[in-house]
Amino acid sequence: QVQLVESGGGLVQAGGSLRLSCRVSARTVSNLLMGWFRQAPGKEREFVARFAWPGDTTYYADSVKGRFTMSRENDKNMVYLQMNTLKPEDTAVYYCAAGTFPTFEYWGQGTQVTVSS
Fold first, then answer.
1. Structural contact between residues 116 and 88, judged by C-beta atoms closer than 8 angstroms
2. DSSP-assigned letter for residue 114
3. Dihedral over alpha carbons 2, 24, 66, 39 (to 10 degrees)
4. How far apart are CA 49 and CA 67, in angstroms?
5. What is the pLDDT along the chain (117 residues), one digit of tens a residue?
6. Cα Rg of the chain, angstroms
7. In what side-by-side order are the strands of the sheet with 3-7?
């Protein structure tokens, strides 16, 4: 069983930045498929970013490419999502996800990100 705990959400003005963190209770983050998803009010959950598996190549949704950066610290079992140049349309609950390629089996409780215009 893998447990995921997100933190770092909040309220920010458009153009601002936030860094989300995901603490992973697993023996090693590097062996897991890791990703970030988000769900805006009234919309379905959508993909934001993930690592290739195996490896460190990152993939991003077109809507966040160039603004968001996913990273991890394997020795700390932490995964991050640096979000820059935030837009009101980035407002959503952000979820950290993990699993065995190609399936995300485990999900965090989510952290709210609100971007005001």
1. yes
2. E
3. 50
4. 11
5. 899 999 999 999 999 999 999 999 977 788 899 999 999 999 999 999 999 888 889 999 999 999 999 999 989 999 999 999 999 999 999 999 999 989 999 999 999 999 999
6. 13
7. 3-7, 18-25, 78-83, 68-73
